[in-house]
Amino acid sequence: MDASFTAEQDEIRRTLRELLQKRCGSPELRAAVDTPAGHDPALWTALAQQLGLPGLALPEAYGGVGCSATELALAAEETGRFLAPSPLLATAVLAAPLVLALGTETQRARLLPRIAAGSLTAALAAPGTALTTALTLTGPNGGEWAGGGRAGGVQARQVGDSGWRLYGQVAQVLDGHSAELLLVAAHTGGFARSRTLLFLVAGDADGLVRVRQTSLDATRPQARLELRDVEGELLGTDDSPHVLRELSATGDTVAAVLAAEAVGAADRALERTVQYVKQREQFGRAIGSFQAVKHRLADVYVQVQAAKSAAYYAAWAIGSGERLGGLALAQALEALRTAAGEGIQLHGGIGFTWEHDAHLYFKRAAGDELLFGPVHRLRAYAAEGAHLFESREVTV
What we know:
48% of the residues lie in helices and 15% in strands. By secondary structure, it is α+β, with helices and mostly antiparallel strands.
């Protein structure tokens, strides 16, 4: 592994950071999350048209840039630094890879160029409390998480030769209230042949009710979807056996990208805290000169740097088939929680106020852990996959 970045990768990071510094400061961030969409459409247009961010990891044949997951992770690291609210995670990281992997050629040609151009946003509608299982981050993906019928979730039934109707409810769908395209996971086939499939549902479909929910992290808007006999289009073909496998493969990329995003947020939280302790004075000297403060921030720095290395390696390892995203995500979320918590403490009286941004970073850590964790389960499942705690006979 070459640990250095290419000139193109450095350029992606530099250009994106410059754009976000101009367009996503604290006032712009707070204004964006209070809009009905939960993000600034003008910023999303700039990210799409100037930087090609939604299509960064999509093939050039569909209007994308053709980069790897590493470039997408580096871009997410920069958006994480500013807690930039955008449909990037829901559209480019969760939904687009599934369309690419499972869609028919007609579906890919119809949808992916619009996603790459930023003119079509998408969201994956899987039960929020089971999203980590669907992505195989905290447990095996057997398909039961999709629910259906009396178990909740969404049930799909075929009408005629090719039409499908969906009925049910899904909560905690990232950007589900504003996405123009929904990828809905649903059970079909009844008890004897029960299986989980993905369906394409238009955001303005008849019978679809979308309600934005109040979330702990306002920069991650979520929605509850109610589907009442809604028309859906099967993603791929009816005999495709690869839905759960592709969800699992997508999960590792999602975890690696989320880890990089959390690392960016942790790095920025630490940076802001260091700047503050250099300015705030107590007993006639800057509090950053006290040894106790130095030690606390040094510990945070080590933790953030370790998480950064893990996130970079997990993104790079995707190309070689190694599943390290869950471990990297656990370490990154823990680093972000520590950096944000120490930031609140060391900012003193101003640190826990609504007007200061410190609480936004802490809520990002807590919100991501609720959606994609918790940390101990991410680590436990990774350890189980590595057979870490299995007893082995030692022969002498």
